[in-house]
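#structure-requests
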Amino acid sequence: MTTTEAAGAPVTDTAAAIDCASSADQDRGTHGYHKQKDEHLKRLRRIEGQIRGLQRMVDEDVYCIDILTQVSASTKALQSFALQLLEEHLRHCVADAAVKGGDEIDAKVEEATKAVARLLRT
């Protein structure tokens, strides 16, 4: 596991918090990220590997600063992933709500704003 690998990988546990489908879409499983699902899963598996690498580093008593470097890389990877999901949410779900208009757009904008706030707190 290297810092370079982490920089190319995606980011965050906020993924679960960014659920952009309407009730009808949830029944069909159509979310803003569905077209890139395989790519997202690949990125998440890479991040999972980074975390397992951190566990190994601790188990092998690796120098603290080296572990912190990898923690930083893993965190960056999760943040990148979250940002990608947020972008897909805006392009798919918020844009769809904008076309429909009414209260739905307000709800989606509020939902996206709260997701951004959660990302900024991390």
